[in-house]
Amino acid sequence: MSVRKLTLGLVSAAVLTAPILATKAQAADEIFIPLLVYRSGAYAPNGIPIANGFRDYFDLLNKRDGGVGGAKIVWEECEFAYNTKVGVECYERLKAKKPVIVNPYSTGLTYKLIPKAPVDKVPILSMGYGRTAAADGRVFPWVFNFPTTYWSQASAFVKYVGAQEGGMGKLKGKKIALVYHNSAYGKEPIPTLQALEKKHGFKLTLLAVDHPGQEQKATWLQIRRLRPDWIFMWGWGVMNQVAIKEAAAIGYPMDHFIGVWWSGTETDVVPAGAGAKGYKAGTFHGAGPGYKAHEDILKLVYGGDVGKAQDNKWGEVLYNRGMMNAVYSIEAIRTAQKKFGVKVPTGEQVRWGLENLDLTAARLKEIGLDGFTKPVKVSCRDHETAGPVMIQQWDGHQWEFVSDWISPMTDVVRPMLEEAAASYAKENNITPRSCN
Amino acid sequence: MDVLYAVFIAPFVDMATAPIFFAEVIIGGLIAGVMYSLVALGFVLIFKASGVFNFAQGVLALFAGLTLVGLMEFMGQTSTQQLPWYLIALAIIGTAAVMVALAFAIERIVLRPLVNQEQIILFMSTIGLALFLEGFGDVLWGSDVKALDIGIPDASFEWGGILLNQFDLVAAATAAVLVAVLAVFFQKTRVGRALRAVADDHQAALSVGIPLKSIWVIVWSVAGIVAMVAGIMWGAKSGVQFSLSLIALKALPVLILGGFTSVPGAIVGGLIIGVGEKIAEIYWGPLIGGAIENWFAYMLAMVFLLFRPQGLFGEKIIERV
After folding, report:
1. By CA distance, what is B243's nearest residue in A?
2. Distance between B295 CA and the closest CA of chain A, angstroms
3. Which helix (H) or strand (E) holds B156?
4. Nearest CA of chain A to the CA of B267: how many Å?
5. Does a structural domain hold residue B319?
6. Which of A44, A249, A275 sits opposite B242 (nearest CB)?
7. For A279, left (φ over 0), alpha (ψ -120 to 50), or beta?
8. How far apart are CA B115 and CA B104, in angstroms?
């Protein structure tokens, strides 16, 4: 055998066995969580703070507590630039490292991963996004979208508007426009709003905006003619900034303009300057870095360097969302560890952890997030928990809460959601499991 | 019957019964069209001088916008503190200088080694350039959405019932001046004629003593400055961010319609596309769920293409056997 062949053989053997060895080494006392991120591309301004929130919380746990339940948290970022195809490739690549949970951070990618989850035994947590029907745990045992969904949020918006108008009875005859991203994500609230339109007698107008949404003159001319009493927006990326600016330009009262929780970040309002003042958005968690967990991150992850932390979006809306998502993932892992008495649970065991997650107010306080969000209790049947929504308002400098927690209209949303889940089950030959 | 009425009658009735709104739609379309033209102009300049479709034109606008915001921040601009006008002017001049320097670099590193290569090779090189500039801009200035305020007033006002925006009017005026200057530059100056000669044939232009290197530097510099203007106008509307590079998509139907080699074509094409897509979106869009303006612009351009393959103002294609 020549030296060349021998070298080639050794290199090939090393390349082939390295992943196996790495997986084995990792399996001992490390829990692997893939982070599918978009730090580049058109949606990077949204993707970066989310990714940082995840990363910093995991880093904090490793530094402060030595990980979770004695196991170190290991993560690897895979850049997919919010491109669904690349996202699937990322998932497939990182699957070899035996992830225990995946957070896709893209509705399109969530749709693609849903059929893979039961096959790969990797549960999906699409926190407040993705396929709304996945809230029915009987049809989607591997997918979780707590604490609330787009449909619940849409109903909470209508409830909020009703309260602002002086009662739900006053909605009759009111005009509500939905300005939405012309994609699966943007269309999510339409069935709910149409059902509520019938029930409460308001007039709903749908205005689609194509990706990326850089030019919206036609949409806002229609708004100007229609003069809706309220506008809801299901936007993403540059669409949000342009819409807020256009609304200000036509003199629309900004306190009657409410965005989905993906349209309510600092990034969305700052470019519009003073015109954005008064704009509102839904949320399901606190804003700003005023919580104990943030203090710990500042101290242990950034060594007390506030400037560096702020450069990493510490405390911004999307940073907090990424952090909250990391909290849910970790608490589900912790639940699985306790139940099965293992340091490193499998994906299947974490699925059980997600389904039996009971994040109480006391536990939130314990982990330094007192009052940050509402407690969550997941069940076999209910993977959403129909959590409440709050309305926040931009005061020109920061987000302020302007409502109490608003419970969604489960009497309207849940039957619709179960119907959609049943329809999915039928199309995909799924026999719903029993949750009794 | 209802469908026929909705498609062929109702929109026209709507236009006739609400003439002020219809006028507002037309003006809105013209203003959007001007913004498209600003982007299309950059493509036309490069195409006229080299016969190359510059895939990087949208990214040049992004890069210029990022550079301008970066320089303004370096000079002390914050979200609460506006720079005095002379510092803003200095930042704009600085950005223009960066774009000229970039043109030199592109000529030296990308174009010079490709003289006399097939057009497709040059086109591919602009794809590489776009990818490089995207990444380089990201590394240099970050991925954040950056607010851009160069002091152009942004207030809206009503004129005869029509809502107008000061910023839009300034953008329209800027584009008009830019087009006038470029038209004179191409038609009346020696450099302009040399640019056209280079576009026709590199070797022939070289043989009559036209300095190819200088011409390319000039044209890429001018295209860079046009990209800067487009970047400022679009960036001020949406914030300077990565998606600014996607405005190139808005310029394509304009180029198809107006012709790849005509400066006035870029303007007239932009206006036709702008007005056409707004009318389509508002009067016919709701019939099929809306969001038709993007594909409608391409459809409109394709219809023109059926009758004039070279575009409205493009040079007639004559192939001699």
Report:
1. A42
2. 10
3. strand B156-159
4. 18
5. no
6. A44
7. beta
8. 15
Give the whole-angstrom CA distance, residue A83 versus residue B291. 21
B157 pLDDT more than 80: yes
User: What pLDDT sits at residue A21?
Assistant: 46
- Domains of chain A plus CATH, in order, are 27-148+288-387+416-427 (3.40.50.2300), 150-283 (3.40.50.2300)
Q: How far apart are CA B317 and CA B301, in angstroms?
A: 18
Domain containing B194 — which CATH number? 1.10.3470
- Shortest Cα–Cα distance, A428 to chain B (Å): 28
Per-residue pLDDT tens over the stretch B20-74: 999 999 999 999 998 899 889 899 888 887 778 899 999 999 999 999 999 999 9
Cα gap B37→B265, rounded to integer Å? 9
| Residues listed for chain A | 436
What's the CA gap between A231 and B140, in Å, rounded? 38
Number of separate domains in chain B? 1
In angstroms, the first-to-last Cα distance of chain A is 66
pLDDT confidence of residue A23: 46
The vertex-B30 CA angle with B182 and B95, nearest 5°, equals 45
pLDDT confidence bin for A10, thresholds 50/70/90: low
Task: Find the residue in B nearest to A214 (Cα).
Answer: B238
- CA distances, B40 to each of A426, B61, B107, B302, B315 (Å): 50, 11, 21, 17, 17
**B65 near B257, Cβ under 8 Å?**
no
- Within a domain: residue B314? no
Map tokens 């939905």 to a residue.
A178
Query: Percent of chain A, pLDDT > 90?
Result: 86
Closest to B70 in 3D by CA, of B47, B94, B100 = B94
For the segment A119-170, what is each residue's pLDDT rounded down to a tens digit?
999 999 999 999 999 999 999 999 999 999 999 999 999 999 999 999 999 9
Name residue A330's amino acid: I
Candidate from B21, B143, B285 with C-beta closest to A44 = B143
In residues, how long is chain B? 321
Taking the C-alpha atoms of residue B253 and residue B245, their distance in angstroms, rounded to an integer, is 16
ipTM exceeding 0.85? yes
Supply A347's token pair: 């994906």
CA–CA–CA angle B311, B313, B319 (5° rounding): 70
| Strand positions, DSSP E, A182-314 | 203-209, 230-234, 257-259, 280-283
pLDDT at A25 over 50: no
Q: Which residues pair with A30 in a beta bridge?
A: A72
Q: Which tokens in the block code for residue A408?
A: 């969604």
Of the candidates A50, A109, A51, A45, the residue with the CA atom closest to the CA atom of residue A238: A45
Tens of pLDDT, residues B79-120:
677 889 999 999 999 999 999 999 999 989 998 888 778 888
Domain extent at residue B216: 2-307
